[in-house]
Amino acid sequence: MSWQDKLRQVQPYIAGEQPRIQNLIKLNTNENPYHPGIKVKEAIQRFDASKLSLYPRPDADELRQALADYHHVSEQQIFIGNGSDEVLALLFLTCFNGEAPVLFPDISYSFYPVYCDLYQIPYQKIPLNEQFEIVKEDYYQENSGIIFPNPNAPTGLCVSLHMIEDILKHNQESIVVIDEAYVDFGGESAVSLIEQYPNLLITQTFSKFRSLAGIRLGVAIGSQEVIARLYDVKNSFNSYPIDSLAQVIGLASMQDSDYIQDNAQKIIATREYTKKQLKKLGFEMPDSKANFLFIKHPHYDAQTLFEKLRERGILVRYFHQPRIEQYLRVTIGTQQQMEIFIEEMKKILEEEI
Ligand SMILES: Cc1ncc(COP(=O)(O)O)c(C=O)c1O
């Protein structure tokens, strides 16, 4: 066997582009258009660089306590990782160890099958219905775990807590993960169900609601038992995933939640405005409760629209994927950015492409 044969070959997740183009209206990776806040800025200015010669606190305990207080759970029910992508990577390794497949929707966060392939975990994609909704009964079958985002990505559609509870009741022998990356833009968090369902695990992120995609902080909230196992796996992989500066910034953000909530309200208002304007232009879309819209025009090809927008300095996300190749995912930016987006889209449609 050659050394080349000994290399692991995987199909990696392909993240949305991060181009260095000036004045680009960047609506392609669901980032928050608003500043992370004055408290974050001051915390960075106060940060003592001499601290960087020491390793950070391995479990980011002050931030962990702040998150516990925010979610009304104990510190032992909080896990913090280097972005929720890392939290997801560790939880797939920790929680999904049976022989039956892990279940997730066919249209969902495209990192899930990548983790399964990486760890050689069997999985089954469960088709969403025609309206892109999750059908709970499809998850009443043997499995090694269940995961889906709520709101789902890239559709933005939410399921009710009632439905999550039904799925939990039918899956008491599996870990059920709800990925709440976008929950603060209009969804309902399932954290309140954790006490009753110790097999429920919730992930959240600082990247969207808290405008901190650049700092890489992700969270899992669950029963003490599951969280302790996650820490065991994390400590078998990397003792210090959260650097000292990220811990300070995360804590400052937790102390500025009112400001951050106001930004979320602005994004929600802009989302509803954008929905209305796009509908006037003939676009169709699910009723997103996230910071993005998933849009389709009955008469215009999505990839062509994507390219025309790019030529005009507006970047959205296009997926070459069955069932959704005629859709674009558009992140909600500031009100001003979305007004420009609508104006440019109008011009493109008028060009009769
Ligand atoms: C559904 C979903 N989950 C998790 C993530 C990962 O977020 P992060 O690693 O920035 O915390 C994303 C990122 O876009 C996402 O869309």
Protein traits:
single chain; alpha/beta; Aspartate Aminotransferase, domain 1; seven-stranded mixed β-sheet; 12 strands; 13% strand; globular
Can you walk me through this structure?
With 353 residues, the chain is an alpha/beta fold. It has helices at residues 38-46, 61-71, 83-95, 112-119, 161-169, 224-234, 244-254, 257-280, 302-311, 335-350, and strands at residues 25-26, 78-81, 102-105, 123-126, 145-149, 176-179, 200-205, 218-222, 292-295, 314-315, 317-318, 328-331. It folds into two domains: 25-36 and 257-350, Aspartate Aminotransferase, domain 1; 38-254, Aspartate Aminotransferase, domain 2, CATH 3.40.640.10. It is built from ten helices and twelve strands. β5, α5 (161-169) and β6 (176-179) form a beta-alpha-beta unit. The longest helix is centred in the C-terminal third of the chain and has 24 residues, at 257-280. The relative contact order is 0.17. The model has no long low-confidence stretch (mean pLDDT 97). Bound molecules: pyridoxal-5'-phosphate.
**Oligomeric state of shown chains:** single chain
> Can you write the helix and strand succession as a string?
EHHEHEHEEHEEEHHHEHEEEH
Give the proportion of residues in helices: 25-40%
Distance N to C terminus: 54 Å
When the domains are counted, the total is 2
What kind of sheet is the major sheet? 7 strands, mixed
Q: Ions, cofactors, ligands: which are bound?
A: pyridoxal-5'-phosphate
Question: How many individual β-strands?
Answer: 12
- Spatial order of the strands in the main sheet? 2-8-7-6-5-3-4
Q: Report the total helices.
A: 10
CATH architecture of the largest domain: 3-Layer(aba) Sandwich
Bulk shape = globular
CATH class of the largest domain: Alpha Beta
